Amino acid sequence: MPERLLHGGTGLGRWRQEHRGGCRPKTAGLLLATAVAAGLLLLLAPFLYSGSPDADRNAWQYLQALAIPGAMAVPGHDDTHMQSASAATHDGEYGGFVSFGKKVFSWTDTVHITIVAPDHNFDPRAVDSIGGTEYDPIRISTREGTLERYKLVETGPNTGIFAGEITLIGFDHDADGDSRTGADGGGFDNPQRKTGGSGPTSGHIKAGSDDAITVSFEYTDGHTIVDTAPIRWNIGQIEWSESSYPASGTGTVRVIDPDMNLNPNAVNSFEVDVWSDSDAGGISLVVTEKSESSGIFEGAVTFTTDDRSSGHRLKVAEGDVVTASYKDNTLPNPYSEADEQSVTAASQIGALVAPLDRVRTSELRITDGFNVDMGSSISEGQQVQVSTKLTNQQERKQQFVYIIVIKDAESSAVSSLSWVTGHIEAGQSLSVSTSWMPEAAGLYDVTAFVWESLVRPSALSPPSQIMVTVN
Predict the structure, then answer these.
(1) In CATH, what number is assigned to the domain containing residue 97?
(2) What does DSSP assign to residue 131?
């Protein structure tokens, strides 16, 4: 028995008792107690299956004893209590439950199924099975297909826990949006198989994009236990592993989308688009699943400043933004199956500088024509310069616009608006100034802004401000 079957269930499924004559009052409490004890066993299963067969059997019997009122009068139980509890639990009066490996599935997932059914542990020395006959059928269904009499096998002698798995195989759909790829050459990317298989691991069943899988087991005549889990598509995510990379480094693109795990028994791959400011055409990058059924895909991009883009190599320059884009063709409601959505992620080439630290400004000053500082008091009608020094703190050339806004401090009316455009090389400093001739006496608010451009008002540094008195 594969180890993954031993640990396939991780929680209580919905437990339902269907009885033709209704539940008898005297057994209702026992049914609930048994379900609780069985649920505890399921949660402890990963720890219990690591010991000897005798230890496993004793642990199971102990938990069974907890379900029998009076069987465990005090701590420190003895073997007589054990045997009595085991015999009573297998008299057909107690129910079980169905559990899945997780709460929600994608259209091509492997579904691990666990059924706790202590009454079907007929031979404590052997590994029993359930579901494969007309007397104890297990039915597995989606809206796209149905399997009858699916067999599950006991996880070990005398456990009363039965496990198996079934693979969802989706439906005909172009998952990557590329009609040139696909299992049949026509763009359908999921494996093209039909619903079939008898268990415990051979089953596969078609599933829709907005579907559900239901497992029902006729525990005894008139008693059926059922659990259902939704099947949903997901909105994919894309990201770079780092916020910035050196121009001669290597970047990693990561896509997270369980819907592209098209074959859960293999490592899957597909292509995404990657480009830079230096090469807008970019490259097609293959991203490969990190492991079977992970739904996480990664691909490495090598950056170069000398060579042209080719294969997994991308042409960049210092200060470039590199962008990765993934087209998601498996979108959940309210999208339709024909919808496509692009998701993108960006990173930067070169040292990453905070937006307002890209350009450092020195103290704002009022100077004369010879760059002599005039302080904060000037005369009406006097020609002056509003000056500062800009320093580019990035490893790339930066375009900028230096804007001076002068307002009357009392009325807030704009007295003067002027600007200068230019660029600063990486790491260099530049003095900039604009001219101002005040026409009236008063107190003025002088504010300087440094933006990328007038059409792209992204601040490169915090604004600077001084107050000037005009006499």
Answers:
(1) 2.60.40.1930
(2) B
